[in-house]
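Dear support,

Our group has been running a series of protein-ligand predictions, and this particular one with coenzyme A is the one our PI (initials K.S.) wants archived with full inputs and outputs. We had some confusion internally about which version of the output was final, so please treat the block below as the authoritative record. The input we submitted was:
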Amino acid sequence: MAPMTAAQFYRRFPILETRRLLLREIVPEDAQAIFEINGDDETARRYYGEEALTSYREAFRLTQSYRQRFIEKRGLFWGICFEEAEEDKLVGFFGLTDVQLPRLAHILCHVAPRYWRRGIYSEATAAVLDFCFVRAEFNRVEGVLLLDNYASQRANRKLGFTSEGVLREYEYWQGDWRDAFMISILRSEYLESVRDRHIRRGLLGPGDPTGA
Ligand SMILES: CC(C)(COP(=O)(O)OP(=O)(O)OC[C@H]1O[C@@H](n2cnc3c(N)ncnc32)[C@H](O)[C@@H]1OP(=O)(O)O)[C@@H](O)C(=O)NCCC(=O)NCCS
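Confirmed final output from the archive:
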């Protein structure tokens, strides 16, 4: 079968469902939740080297830019809903940026600090990888992490990503160039072994592949 074209990829927003999560399109009404996810200075500085959001207005603009990205066929951002949280309120978001079909997609994810270590990232990533490799047939999914983001490094290693090496002084933040590194997973690796591992860990359910 021929790989998906951009027109097919962006035809309608792909909703992903997992055992405990719903990944859906982000709407302007999610601004308060986005503010809570990205509004903590210490988290922003330590983990992703950006300024934290300082106002609801900024968060509102971010929700609009996420929607615009999909409309302009420049990637997509899912909002993550968690069954143990307030109904329909986002506990995190998951982005696919730098989407080049069928070559690669770049991932990034933020979970609200009060929901860390509940397996949300792992379950969301398993669904997104299944969507990327089985539905959309990307050849490679990659991400960039700050070198000292050990939490994310550990999470990604457990999910089957390979570290590819240091990107020297790759990010600039508050007067400092900071090292980062690239992680990736290939479609062949995913289909040969990683997908089975995710099923065994209960990260993927019987109704998969996701994104129908
Ligand atoms: C990285 C991040 C997305 C992980 O989200 P999460 O939902 O807490 O992750 P999970 O619960 O699925 O954790 C999976 C594994 O990662 C590791 N891990 C996660 N957080 C960790 C921490 N603070 N310290 C050490 N290990 C950690 C653990 O091995 C964990 O498995 P375990 O709980 O069974 O031991 C979250 O910490 C976050 O939003 N960080 C800020 C944004 C960021 O750094 N994003 C990544 C770069 S874009």
